[in-house]
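Dear colleagues,

As part of the handover before I leave the project, I'm documenting each prediction I ran so the next person doesn't have to rerun anything. This entry is a single chain, and its sequence is reproduced below.
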Amino acid sequence: NNDDKNIRRRVYDALNVLMAMDIITKDKKEITWRGLPGDQDFQDIGIGSMNMISGLSRSQRMQKLEEERSLREEEVKKKKACLEELLVQNVCFQNLLGRNHGMEMQERQTRDVAARPKLEKIPLPLI
């Protein structure tokens, strides 16, 4: 019994600290998560988005989350398309590098052959 009161008091203290730091809000018996203090810096990339929707009803929160999810899915589709284009460009550049390297090697070989002295035949005396 005494331990239960002690635990309740510690939980109450912890909740008060979280409320003082504006991490949670309490309305009668409902506790709402507002987010950690540094989360506002990441709001434009979606982290800490619960801060924006914490004051809404459950159905409104679900609707907001679904909207955010569909936006994220669109972003993923766009980024996949961009990545595919970059992969195609990378393959093209690799092929171009290979072709240029082959042409360079071929030019070196033709230069080396042209630079070699030609062996002339020396006629032997007829015996």
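The chain has a mean pLDDT of 82. The chain has three helices and two strands.

All the best with the project,
I.
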